[in-house]
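Batch job 17 of 40 flagged for manual review because the log was empty.
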Amino acid sequence: MKKIVQLVLSLTVIAAVCAAVLATVDSVTKVQIATIKARATQNAARLVMPASVKEVEQKSDGGGDYFVGKGANGQPIAYALKGTSRQGYGGSIVLMVGFLPDRTIVTYQKLEAAETPGLGSNLTSENFMKQFKGMPAAKDISVKKDGGNVEAITSATITSRAVCGAINAARARLDGILAR
């Protein structure tokens, strides 16, 4: 019985030490991770705006942060917003999507996605992305299988639908911003 008590006590001490180490590592890295994510989001916002943007202003509303690109005269000429779809093959897909004020898509950048390597990971391939550039997004965008005009990634229709969904989510948010 004494041996069992010693083993339980030893395991309890080991577990407490491990928990303390994990809590310390979490608290030290949490700020760094948040800073890196914020920097990646800001960089993605700049990448999805046209070259004519002279200044990028970060704004916030009830739906989170978004970015307004201003031209030489200080007027808004582009917007960058996050769009999320939880319908990806490997989970959520989060994109930063650039729009002109008339809701024409400039391009998008992947922020988060865990799609199948070699298939769904092609959501950032030039061939797939180029079909969105200049596309009017005044209404929902969808893949050809669903009656839309987006050619799905071969063997990755689920991912393609999720990309369309993320872009539609970003456009819907832009609609709300522009309506104010």
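Reviewer: the log was empty due to a logging misconfiguration, but the result itself is present. The chain has a mean pLDDT of 90. Unflagging and moving on to job 18.
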